[in-house]
Design a protein that fits this description.
497 residues, alpha/beta, globular
Length: 497
């Protein structure tokens, strides 16, 4: 029995609760974030080899964006943009730097958010939401200023450190500030071919981390059904980020003839006897997690009141050694057509590194089976979720409120420019201005690359550089970058003249 309406009514009668209009009037918000999932790696975005029925069902029941961009082309800064609503010109975290570089007292975790950073979780928590995160954090070690508990998450379970998350059989996971033992011994995410040879069960442990993470999320949903408060559930799952060592029964769902050769580990992470099947298994498992979360919400009586967003933190895994048929960790984007023809991969500000799947389901608010080509990105979710919860953003957002587009109320003719200042992978900047994207790479090198300009709607593969024909767009992009890039000593990148 779902007691939430009863508690809400009682709270209203007694004059208690978290907000004057009763928390029950606000939607549950569930944000599902895949890790390195490519633009073309789900069925509703054109994938032919890997079944993703639960993700596809979300799209059939909601809205699918066709020009949605991540906050950055790699993990930590993308998550920073998502949670703070500040684009990479203003974001505190602009790269994947380990915390120990600036804070040697921490042995794991990434450079932390500061105590002054405001996250969407903090805003929602302060308005009465029950907040929780299950999965991969990557924005500061436990006990640091970037601890999830200090940024609005009352409950956290999963990986604090992205480097630890390279293994799906780690020694432990974090439950708030406590380590929860998981595997003894742990299975590393980086190892060589075993001395006795590579088999399909090499590098398997006792407890697969994602199974425990999803189970904890299901338990949270079940417990939340007894509360009048709405939930904000952040689910940054780790699949399909390498290393690949999914359970054998999941690998066996896919044809053996897919894998004429094993991945020997030449591009880092773990070797695998059946790399294509293993990669497909990870995406199929991600889809199963989406189905389990949906079922848990339905069982708790929350599904029809839930705003569910599904997306990815960046594009699919980039290439490794030129003489290897595999990408980093044994991924094979060519086999799966992972970018669906877009240029570039993870780590790149080309479309293949930044454009990601994005699906939004919200019954009675979003029309089923709709598609939007409105350009959008991670900085938009802070003001959008505030609007959905009937809250005012605490500061002027870098992004735009997408709620009118989601609900079909209005589609603007234009939007704010979208901006990326990325100091890693040679140093890259990009600005999306209307239909055009202005790019410059190699800014951390002695010889920066020339300016590039692409008309994205007609040239999503970014084959035709229009820079010579549009110097005014380069000048406009430079003006925007100079006015909207704050100094960041931890992640410096000079804007060119």
């Amino acid at each position: 029995m779902n007691l939430r309406p009863c508690f809400a009514a009682l709270a209203l009668l007694l004059g208690i609760g978290t907000t004057p209009a009763a928390a029950a009037a606000k939607p549950h918000i569930v944000f599902i974030l895949a890790d390195d999932l490519g633009w073309g790696e789900t069925g509703c975005y054109g994938q032919k080899k890997i079944p993703t029925p639960h993700i596809d069902q979300l799209a059939a029941e909601g809205l699918r964006f066709t020009q949605h961009y991540s906050g950055a082309p790699v993990c930590a800064p993308s998550r920073c943009v998502l949670l703070t609503g500040q684009h990479l010109g203003h974001a505190e975290i602009r790269g994947n730097q380990q915390a120990a570089k600036s804070f040697p007292e921490f042995k794991e975790g990434q450079h932390p958010l500061s105590s002054k950073a405001i996250t969407i979780a903090s805003v929602l928590q302060n308005s009465g939401y029950r907040t929780a995160a299950f999965g991969k954090w990557g924005l500061g070690p436990v006990g640091s200023s970037g601890d999830p508990a200090r940024h609005g998450f009352a409950t956290f379970f999963g990986y604090n450190c992205q480097a630890v998350a390279h293994s799906f059989y780690p020694a432990s996971l974090w439950q708030n500030d406590r380590r929860i033992p998981l595997n003894n011994p742990a299975v590393p995410g980086h190892a060589k071919v075993p001395a006795d040879g590579l088999t399909e069960t090499s590098f398997h442990g006792t407890t697969y981390s994602s199974h425990r993470i999803v189970a904890e999320a299901e338990a949270f949903i079940a417990s939340a059904a007894q509360s009048p408060n709405p939930i904000f559930l952040y689910l940054p799952f780790t699949e399909p980020h390498v290393a690949m060592h999914p359970p054998t029964e999941e690998v066996n769902r896919f044809p053996r003839d897919w894998d004429p050769q094993p991945y020997q580990g030449e591009n880092g992470y773990l070797p695998h006897a059946r790399p294509r099947a293993a990669y497909a298994a990870m995406i199929h498992m991600l889809d199963q997690y989406v189905g389990r979360i949906r079922s848990a919400l339905a069982k708790a009586g929350m599904l029809e009141d839930a705003l569910i967003i599904f997306t990815s933190d960046n594009g699919t895994t980039h290439a490794g050694k030129p003489d290897s048929p595999f990408h980093i960790g044994g991924a094979d984007p060519a086999f799966f057509h992972s970018t669906a023809g877009l240029r570039g991969f993870k780590g790149s500000v080309y479309e293949g590194g930044l454009r990601v799947p994005c699906i939004v389901r919200w019954p009675n608010h979003i029309k089923a089976n709709t598609v939007s080509d409105f350009p959008s990105y991670f900085a938009d979710w802070f003001p959008t979720l505030c609007a959905a919860a009937d809250l005012a953003p605490p500061t002027a957002p870098d992004g735009e409120n997408l709620l009118p587009i989601l609900t079909g109320a209005a589609t603007p003719d234009s939007r704010k420019p979208m901006l990326w200042v990325f100091p890693e992978y040679t140093g890259q900047i990009a600005v999306r201005i209307g239909p055009h994207k202005v790019i410059r790479r190699g800014l951390a090198n002695r010889k920066p690359q020339p300016w590039e300009v692409y008309h994205v709607p007609s040239d999503p593969a970014e084959k035709t550089n229009l820079a010579a024909a549009h110097p005014e767009l380069i000048r406009q992009a430079l003006d925007l970058l100079r006015s909207q890039t704050s100094e960041n000593q931890t992640f410096p990148l000079a804007i060119p003249d």
